[in-house]
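User: For my dataset I need records formatted as: sequence, then structure tokens, nothing else. Please produce one.
Assistant:
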Amino acid sequence: MGIADELLKLGKDGVHGDLVPHHVLIGYDGAVALIDPAASAYLDRAQSAGREGYRSPEHIDADGLTKASDIFVLGILLFEMTTGHPLYAEPTHADNEVRIKAGEMPKPRTRTGPNSASRTGKGRLVPHLFSRNCLVLMK
């Protein structure tokens, strides 16, 4: 089971709403579990520390959360796991929000370096964590 599989388990209308790295647990056997779903009842939780770069544009605008919100953040996590660098790491919360809403995303190749997942072998987790069920989520 991967992150996408766990999101799929939430059902057609189910939304995690607070997908951040510290809510993704990986067991010694490679099993993945998502903890602490927030859904739309806790949109303000995303304003708290540790979540600045893990929000979708509709989350920032408080337009409500959908499966697309979780998939957007899933992409942020994938970027981070494969490059070893955060996608949105501006000095201020407001700067991160501007970049997210504008859809500004650097190419992963520009963010790889000596500590990147692709160079350290950590990238082997990616096929397991992001399974083909990500495509099912988008339907």
